[in-house]
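> call design_seq(struct)
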């Protein structure tokens, strides 16, 4: 049965939000590590709660084309088994108000693809229509920003909207563009379909409008049809409580970030590329997790060089080594910590700037010479608060590290060389100017 998202703020606790998905049989995925009593309370709430307010928006899918020439295809020939799948899906869509029969000058073809679990999925091939669509440039959230906001969160409620796009209607003028044909007729979408290039941005606009207040408060993080509700403890969460979540291809647990095994598995099982397109696809998979791989661009360079224009495809020893190394590094289950926005960087800057200014009073342009001297000061919060190194505390005087002295010597040599080159450039420029003026 088609699901409908219902949203309401609890009067008893303004920090708790209930999302009811109307299905014939309620199914809950509540973390097994949750105490039994808490799990029972959550299940009872989800089963019995009936929201009395449904938040709606005026967001609709609007389609504009750059070419008025209609795009029309004859029905695609499908195997008999796939015809039954298509007919069943169309009947379900009509029953749920997703599509309707129509006459239209536009018509795309239907195809059946396989999901990850092997089950069939009916799709509309909008590729030619996408070429003439005016793009919706509403921005999608930056995934790294979303992952950074997961800091200090211990309990998560995750929602993956069922048929999320179908919550957004298609305006009446745009419906003919969404038309598709089968052996049994022509239909158009009343709800936003999958496959149109403008749909992700439109859906993100819809989700941001629905959850705007909650996003501002830092309670909800929406990315397309993936939604995470953040909580610092069980009392702030009321459904699908989990200590660990898989979100946007990452696993977040105890303030640490891991690449999702389901995603890295596709990298590990990726066959050796035979074409430039396959190399590009592999780099797209690994590039998504480049933050987990030190010096990713250096390791991947032999492969990325194959993508250059007019470069012949030659998967040789260097490319094979790069390919295997990227796989190996992702197989090691790399871990990242998440930054904490607790003001430490700002506090360090407020300490460093006046100190450097004082130390470089004689020559403010050489403030960088004194940076190594501050390294010992910034070892810990305690030392940062007193601006004193452990050696100074014990002996009352500061020592110089041999490495720091060598760094200062190199910096002085580079600065001297730069000054000499600058003077030569000035003289050459002056001579050239005078020569032109004559």
């Amino acid at each position: 049965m088609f699901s409908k998202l219902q949203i309401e703020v609890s009067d008893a606790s303004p920090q708790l939000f209930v999302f009811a998905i109307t299905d014939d049989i309620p199914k809950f995925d509540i973390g097994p590590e949750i105490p039994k009593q808490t799990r029972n309370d959550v299940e009872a709430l989800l089963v019995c709660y009936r929201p009395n307010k449904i938040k709606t928006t005026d967001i609709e899918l609007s389609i504009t084309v750059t070419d008025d020439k209609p795009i029309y295809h004859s029905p695609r020939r499908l195997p008999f088994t796939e015809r039954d799948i298509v007919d069943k899906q169309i009947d379900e869509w009509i029953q749920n108000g997703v599509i309707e029969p129509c006459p239209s000058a536009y018509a795309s073809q239907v195809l059946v693809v396989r999901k990850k679990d092997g089950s069939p999925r009916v799709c509309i091939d909008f590729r030619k229509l996408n070429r003439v669509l005016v793009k919706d440039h509403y921005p999608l959230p930056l995934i790294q920003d979303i992952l950074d906001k997961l800091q200090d969160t211990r309990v998560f409620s995750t929602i993956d909207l069922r048929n999320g796009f179908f919550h957004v209607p298609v305006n009446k003028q745009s419906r003919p563009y969404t038309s598709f044909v089968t052996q049994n007729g022509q239909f158009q979408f009343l709800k936003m379909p999958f496959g149109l290039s403008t749909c992700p941005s439109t859906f993100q606009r819809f989700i941001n409008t629905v959850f705007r207040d909650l996003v501002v408060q830092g309670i909800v993080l929406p990315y397309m049809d993936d939604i995470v509700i953040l909580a610092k403890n069980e009392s702030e969460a009321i459904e699908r409580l989990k200590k660990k979540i898989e979100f946007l291809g990452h696993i977040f647990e105890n303030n640490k970030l891991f690449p999702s095994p389901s995603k890295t598995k596709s990298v590990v099982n990726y066959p050796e590329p035979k074409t430039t397109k396959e190399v590009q696809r592999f780099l797209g998979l690994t590039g998504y997790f480049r933050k987990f791989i030190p010096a990713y661009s250096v390791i991947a360079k032999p492969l990325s060089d194959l993508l250059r224009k007019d470069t012949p495809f030659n998967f040789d020893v260097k490319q094979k080594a790069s390919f295997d190394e990227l796989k190996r590094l992702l197989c090691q289950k790399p871990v990242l910590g998440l930054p904490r926005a607790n003001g430490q960087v700002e506090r360090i800057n407020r300490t460093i700037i006046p100190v450097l200014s004082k130390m470089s009073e004689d020559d403010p342009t050489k403030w960088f010479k004194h940076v190594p001297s501050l390294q010992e000061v910034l070892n810990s919060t305690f030392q940062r608060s007193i601006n004193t190194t452990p050696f100074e505390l014990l002996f009352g005087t500061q020592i110089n590290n041999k490495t720091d002295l060598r760094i200062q010597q190199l910096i002085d040599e580079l600065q001297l060389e730069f000054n000499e080159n600058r003077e030569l450039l000035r003289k050459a420029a002056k001579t050239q100017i005078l020569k032109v003026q004559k």
